[in-house]
Amino acid sequence: MATSQRRLEAMTVTESAPVKAERWTHQWKELYEEVITTGLCTGCAGCVVTCPHDVIGYEHEEGKYIPFHIEEELGLDNCIHGEKGCTTCTRACPRFRKWEEAADTHLFGRTREPEEMSGIWRQLLLTRATDKVQHEKGQDGGFVSAMLIWLMENDYIEAALVSGVEPDDAWKAKPVLARNKEEVLATAGSRYTYCANPLALREAKEQGLTKLALVGMGCQTSSPPVMWDRKAGKVGKPFLFNIGLLCSKTFDDAIFVELFEAKYGLKKQDMVKMNIKGAFQIWMKDGSFHEINLKECHQWTRQGCKSCPDFAAEHADISTGGIGKDNDWTLTIVRTELGEEVINRMIADGVIESRPAQEDEVAMKLLRTLSIVSRRRWPEWAEASVSIGVPPPKKKVEGTEPAAH
Ligand SMILES: Cc1cc2nc3c(=O)[nH]c(=O)nc-3n(C[C@H](O)[C@H](O)[C@H](O)COP(=O)(O)OP(=O)(O)OC[C@H]3O[C@@H](n4cnc5c(N)ncnc54)[C@H](O)[C@@H]3O)c2cc1C
Ligand code: SF4
Ligand code: SF4
């Protein structure tokens, strides 16, 4: 636990150190104007779960996934507590102003270099769980589940904020708290609709749990480092380990009925697994396998993903993905000192196998390409540093086909 304790101590030291920074006065009013109404809001729920006055609402439902103000005193676009000095929501927002710089500096002591399209990292590995059940239940190599179980067994965390499903619908994602091995395994695998895992923080608080891991896409895992850097205070303290999921986009829940069922006759309740590897892949109960062209799925892209620049979950301790030639390994990007400590101990304990990811040249190329594609979505009028180093799209030469990825 040495490193995570050091992280907390560092936070405390930073909080009391004399810093000559501009006073942070930004509140809901600025968040609403600059993030929520401009399309930068991803719906990560960071502001919702950290609001000390509980005045930010959120509906975890199709077409919503966006925060709104509950108190009507000053209208939807202002907050009475903000007017009196509360600034927690902007301190927690991983899309407000210089968010990338804030999280980079806090985690790595520097900002990314222009060529670091996938963020800053220490090790690139391919990993998989050695335990057969963990490996089989996992989406790729079962690494994330193996790590959560290991973190619990080794007293790094008490529970994890993950994505479960509704009791009556195996594909309707919902944020849940996993407190033990069984609950981790029951929530393994990927759902490709949105799940604001930070919302499970409320349940953790109710249960008095204070040592947590957050599993989530980049839009969610940038929130704790941003909070730490902007000194949001005790709200950022329960997040002791941050596990990122690589992500190009999520889809609206309507894709199940409006595309998969209406056009291909594939009923949600008969699906057993899905994956995205160049196409939307679906495995059915009757043993059949289907691939649907991603271009067809495009119109069901969730609104909150359309300006998202972070494919590689660049501010997690460890980020994970499924790109590469092998289906049953997890691409594992070890970013922080704490992440490195944990992965080295997991390898030494024999709970995962690992090999250098550089062996898989296709995966390495895809990681860079997909990171660039996501960064190109970041609007020109928004914080410019996010687009530093992003190469312009290649011009199509007339009469040639675009290069396939
Ligand atoms: C919406 C989404 C999009 C993704 N897109 C890509 C991609 O484009 N390229 C790529 O390489 N990898 C992508 N991934 C990551 C990949 O699918 C795997 O999650 C990752 O490789 C880890 O695999 P694993 O076997 O180690 O994880 P597992 O052991 O299966 O654990 C996965 C963890 O993810 C959580 N989870 C599942 N669904 C969601 C969700 N919707 N929201 C939040 N948490 C969730 C689970 O609760 C579990 O804790 C995506 C994942 C998600 C959820
Ligand atoms: S990006 Fe997240 S923290 Fe920022 S406004 Fe949207 S939901 Fe809130
Ligand atoms: S693309 Fe992925 S990481 Fe980005 S906002 Fe959407 S879900 Fe979040």
Bound molecules: flavin-adenine dinucleotide, iron/sulfur cluster
**Class from helix and strand fractions:** alpha+beta
Radius of gyration: 21 Å
Characterize the biggest β-sheet. Answer: 8 strands, mixed
How does this model look, in words?
The chain has 405 residues and is an alpha+beta fold. The chain folds into three domains: 24-108, Alpha-Beta Plaits (2-Layer Sandwich), CATH 3.30.70.20; 123-245 and 305-385, no CATH class; 253-300, Nuclear Transport Factor 2, Chain: A (Roll), CATH 3.10.450. It is 32% helix and 18% strand. It has 16 helices and 13 strands. It has helices at 2-16, 28-36, 46-50, 80-83, 88-92, 99-108, 132-137, 143-153, 181-186, 201-206, 218-221, 223-229, 255-264, 294-297, 337-349, 361-375, and strands at 56-57, 68-69, 123-129, 159-166, 169-178, 212-217, 239-245, 271-276, 279-284, 289-293, 318-321, 330-334, 352-356. The strands form three sheets. Strands 5-4-6-7-11-12-3-13 form an eight-stranded mixed beta sheet. Strands 8-9-10 form a three-stranded antiparallel beta sheet. Strand 11 (318-321) and strand 12 form a beta hairpin. Helix 6 packs across helix 12. One iron/sulfur cluster (SF4) is lined by residues 42, 194, 217-219, 247-250, 304-305, 308, 310.
